[in-house]
Design a protein that fits this description.
about 500 residues; alpha+beta; Pdz3 Domain; 2-enoyl-CoA Hydratase, Chain A, domain 1; 4 domains; six-stranded antiparallel β-sheet; six-stranded mixed β-sheet; 15 helices; about 35% helix
Length: about 500
């Protein structure tokens, strides 16, 4: 009221609320009316729109993945297309999430202007109802092994997983691979129900603990299982989170499945939406969840931060025992029983993904190469070399933790011991680290090639084609099939 210039009270209050919540954790969020609607869509698995995954930037939208035979695909849009205008609205001038403009009523039309390889094009897209399947793919991996991809835990998850399981068993599946890689989680109830497919009724799967007693709860299986004996491998990676970790951690603790892949994300926090006025909500962290052995797999401690305000990663892991007495640990995601190197990650791989270099390379590759059938696809031997040159021509840079510490040491200059010789040594060491980190392309060749292969296959054969390609080419699936084919080793792993 007393400020020298005109103010926008709504914007000030929105900033105040979000800044306050930022001091808690990234999952405690204020949801405006649009956010609430998106939250409902995510849980229900249904919405009306163009049928494409888009990524929002400050001045543009990028098509990340068009879904096969949905409106965006039928209109000719491809991954990598930059949407610069939606109807009469220029994306760069639109302050809110421009992706919302692509949604609308069934059969309504929207005109988009996009850039592709430096050229501008337009497409008229007729929106339709989009069903987001929790199980986008399942198939027999070989004569005796079934393979199910579970991509999210929406309201359809357990129903679709059960249907896939029963169908595969009718086709002759005597063992099963459940793929939870890249699954960000979702509904807790669906995680319990999916675990229930493989374990008896009345089994404790997860416990939630809060400072508010009414939020303390034990979740047990409530239904008769489909199959408690079928040999089972669960695949996870660093982007398997939340409900994915409840399923994988629960089946691991109960010695019901062998978990393979890479350490999961580590989200052991439970949120509940609380209704506020004007159709808004507060999604607030109310408790932590614990697997059957009693471990919490939350990896980041948001209540103890470093000097820069970043959450501290838990490092004091405690040991717990599975039903058979195997040792498992808490505090850092679900650690697989058998690690698969190609699923590993580090500072280099994370930086390449965050800077969209793998995505951009796949876009360029797809316009210079053609494949008529997935059986013809093979990543050329020189791909990694070409990708390295592609990265070299970009403005890509990343900082390792070692570099960060060395730069801090140079900046602080402890006067008691610091001198010119030490400064020279630190700078020399920093230069060596800078040179060495780019050699990491060679030491991480298999991991980078796997990411490139995944992204490129999707450009030609969509996600369904990628899953089919996985069956005979993916290192994790091949390792899982080998383990399941060796009954003695499978049983030994669980003892």
């Amino acid at each position: 009221m007393n400020y020298v210039d005109e103010t926008n009270p709504a914007a000030l209050m929105d900033t105040a609320i979000k800044s306050m919540l930022d001091d808690l954790d990234p999952y405690t969020q204020f949801l405006n009316e649009q956010d609430v609607e998106a939250f409902k869509i995510s849980n229900a698995g249904e919405y009306s729109g163009i049928g494409a995954l888009v990524r929002s930037y400050r001045d543009k939208l990028v098509i990340v993945e068009p879904y096969k035979d949905y409106p965006a695909d039928k209109a000719g849009l491809k991954a990598g297309d930059e949407i610069v205008k939606i109807g009469d609205i220029t994306v760069a001038d639109f302050k809110d999430d421009a992706g919302e403009l692509l949604k609308g009523a069934d059969n309504s039309k929207v005109t988009v202007t996009y850039k592709r390889q430096g050229k501008t094009g337009t497409a008229v897209i007729e929106r339709e109802s989009i069903d987001i399947d929790a199980v986008p793919f399942y198939q027999m991996a070989d004569e005796r092994t079934g393979y199910i991809v579970l991509s999210r835990f929406n309201a359809k998850a357990s129903e679709q997983t059960q249907k896939a399981l029963e169908d595969l068993k009718e086709q002759g599946a005597e063992r099963l691979i459940l793929d939870l890689r890249d699954n960000p989680g979702g509904l807790l109830s669906e995680a319990i129900n999916i675990t229930n497919l493989f374990v008896p009724k009345g089994e404790l799967i997860v416990t939630t603990k809060s400072k508010v007693k009414k939020f303390n709860e034990e979740y047990k299986t409530r239904k008769q299982p489909v199959d408690t004996e079928i040999p089972l491998v669960v695949l996870i990676n660093g982007r398997s989170a939340s409900a994915s970790e409840i399923v994988s951690g629960g089946l691991q603790d109960l010695d019901r499945a062998v978990v393979m892949g890479a350490r999961s994300f580590g989200k052991g926090l439970v949120q509940r939406p609380l209704k506020l006025t004007y159709g808004t909500q507060l999604k607030v962290t109310i408790s932590r969840y614990y697997t059957p052995s009693g471990r919490c797999i939350q990896s980041l401690d948001y209540w103890n931060r470093d000097d820069e305000g970043n959450a501290v990663r838990n490092s004091n892991y405690r040991e717990f025992k599975t039903k058979n007495g195997r040792i498992v640990t808490d505090g850092g995601g679900v650690v697989p029983d058998i690690a698969v190197r190609e699923l590993g990650s580090n500072d280099l791989i994370t930086a390449l993904q965050q800077n969209q270099l793998i995505f951009d390379y796949a876009t360029a590759y797809s316009y210079n190469n053609n494949y008529a059938d997935i059986s013809e696809f093979e990543l050329p031997a020189e791909t990694l070399k070409d990708f390295r040159e592609f990265v070299g021509k970009s403005d890509f840079s990343f900082e390792t933790q070692t570099e960060k510490k060395l730069k801090e040491a140079l900046t602080s200059r402890d006067e008691v011991v610091f001198n010119d010789d030490i400064e020279s040594d630190l700078k020399s060491l920093l230069a060596k680290v800078e040179k060495q980190k780019y050699k990491a392309f060679d030491s991480n060749a298999s991991e980078i090639e796997k990411l490139l292969e995944d992204e490129i296959v999707k450009r030609y054969f969509y996600r369904e084609g990628l899953y089919a390609y996985y069956l005979d080419h993916d290192p994790s699936i091949l390792a899982a099939r080998e383990l399941l084919g060796n009954t003695a080793k499978y049983r030994e792993t669980l003892q």
